[in-house]
Amino acid sequence: MWRLALRTLSFRKDVFAAVFTAMLLGAVIVSAAGALMETGLRGKVPPQRLAGAPIVIVGDPSYPLPKADLRDEDTEWTRLTERVRLGVGLLDTLRAVPGVDRVIGDLSFPATILLGNRPAGVGHDWSSARLAPYELGAGTPPGGSGEVVLDATLARRSGAGVGDRVEVAVGGVAGTYRVTGVAAPADGRAITEAVMFFSASDARRLAGHPGTVDAAAVLPARGIDTGVLRPRIQAALHGHMATALVGDDRGLAEFPEGRDGGENLVVISGVTAGTTLLVAALVVAGTLGMSVEHRSREMALLKVMGTSPARIRRMVFSEGMTVSALAVVPGCLLGPYLGHWLFGRLVADGLVPEVMPFQQSWIPVVAAVATCLLAAAAAVFLPARRASMIPAVEPPAGTVPRRRPLGLVRSAIALVCLAGGAALAVSAAVAPRPPGVISVCLTVIALSVGLTLVAPRMTVAMTEALRRPVRAVFGQPGHLAILNTRARTVRVAAAATPIMLVTGIALANVYLQVSPAGVAERAYVRDLRADVVLTAQTGGLATDLLGQVRSIPGVAGASEFVTGTVFLESPYDAWQGEDGWPARGITAEGAEHVMKLRLTAGTLTGLRGHSVALAEGHARQLGRGLGDTVRIRLGDGHAAELRVVALLSAKAGAETVLMPADLLAQHTTAGLPPQILVRAVSDGDVPRVAATLAGVARAVPGLRVSGDDVLSGPHTERERTRAWVNHLLIGTTLAFVVISVISTQAAGAVRRRREFRLQRLIGSSRGQILRMMGVEGVLVAVIGVVLGTVCFVPLLLPFTIAVNGSPLPSGPVWLYVIVVCSVGLSALMGALSPAWIVTRPRRVRSADSGGS
Length: 852
Hints:
The chain is an alpha+beta fold. The strands form five sheets. Strands 16, 17, 18, 19, 20, 21, 22, 23, 24 and 25 form a ten-stranded mixed beta sheet that branches. It has a six-stranded mixed β-barrel with strand order 6-7-12-9-11-10. It has a four-stranded antiparallel beta sheet with strand order 5-14-1-15, with helices on one face.
């Protein structure tokens, strides 16, 4: 049967070319996703400035989410959003560990030189210069206050040299420093950050976090191995929110964004690979199923000749697996190149830090080959089994087909998938928080599998529903197209099912996630009423700038503005997810001017010190009211007891926690407010106020003046990741759908040569045949799009009504239009192209009459 299978491949190039293309594309994408996943799982961020320290201690951002039952041993972990700093007392504890030679505390803060083209860099204590190490090319180290050492990059960009005086701005405040030296990394090491080194006293003052350090570098004593010293240090860190990093993990101390980059890669690659395998398997199964239908006479003849069903099943299985294997191996070898290109796009889009290297080994390639072959085997199995069940003799007319166990299993699986998908969609609709990427993808996969299993029956019903409209619009070609569609239900279902899937996936993946995020973003921005916004481009804003802004004529009110994420620890919050709650910091004196909030109780004038304002529904769920206290974990790990001073009216899914700006800013990485919101007395005062603030910005380093268009919610970063996932899913699925629809339509048209010739013999013109085929292509596209829309929209309605307050979802309509136009054109192309070729007039050579 293997030999027969190989021989039959050359006679069915159209069908097997489609299978080859689908598996090749699937293997390329799965292999590329594997390369991205390997990079994300390894999460290597090689150290640069701290490379000279074999062990680096940083604050542990891991945070155990509060549990309803403290006896519950299962703990869910999440990650704090701000830098967790170390107390200086921990440095003494580390110095007392046996085998430790020296412990160096590292401080990092943004700094800008107000000279030349104003180059920005990162300020550090000179004691940390030995960790790279840095070597002085000229001059001396900073010996006291008011002295600085520049690295070669900053010295070149600013044009400053040894002995020059430069103004350096940190946190919106400029100071004059004398350049005592110019340093460069030893041995020509590459360090991406431009740095400047200050004296110990200046570094502590400029960092703005007294009594803490950002990281601690541990240098072992001579002869002490890192593997021996690390367990001792871990033991000394017990009870502290700190962890010891070695190897490439030390780079996370310099570039903490590497953690998010690795997680983004894992999410994007995992979802993309899973959906690609599912869609590729469905395309292969549908294409081979159509091929088996066309070969029913061949299978019957083989049975008449005495071939057993097992051998027929083995032949069809061998055909599909041979073609799949020929496509999977080169596809998986090409995948890493696509993975490297996608990695570059993710870096350019800011989802992955530049310092994270792309890593590729043989493991993802081998895993991709095995996974794709398993998916191909699962896809080929059902068509092969169907081929073995074709009877040798057609049953007499009127015979009722016997219900087979496989049909019952198929119906049961379809029912379970549809019910599970509906349950997931409804649970997402009633949930207080937006659904995550994994939840939405599980919903889409469950519904896709269920709809695929019932697609033939739905296609029959849809064809009957379109019968009269098609006949009325297209006339005789429409009548013939309806008859052909009814006679070829399996082929039409094989072509319409992928269209249905991509339409549903486009609806679900985009609108189930964009709707809640869009509502939350609009609610977030709608609550802010700033006419002009002052934004710190590096670090934060000076503490005395707010009073200066309020004194400007025409300013009705101004307030500092800070955003962050907090976690509620007590009382237990059943609504809280792993992302915590978005928090906004505002100054009480200007809150009523720059924020448009509807208070149901309390007042924002009391938003001072350790206080908080909660959404009314959220406070009711917590069982808290005015004057009660809640325990909140801030973004840097600090816990605070806050008193509720106001209750806000907020829509479900758009709840926020309102806090004093100085309290929230103190526990962010920058440590200072990044923005000031300014409200003018009237619209006529806005240009004058903006012009005055522009003059202030020119005098204050690192300050930018803009309108309220710069305001964005805390959902931006997560939505960028979700947008990448959605666009990859839809683009990948659309590519498979185009392949499937074109191949299915083309294969069906090519095998209808006799029908076309008979139509020509009875007087049909070539144009009439092409119009008929065009109507069939439109029918396939309409059936797929309508079924995909009708089946998924009812599941979207309760969700969008709960989130938006209306049945209309939020999201880009153009994406849905692109999907519909693409599948429609592919259906037309697949139907018309082969019909155009088959119905071409043949050239007839006149025979030579010879000696007649």
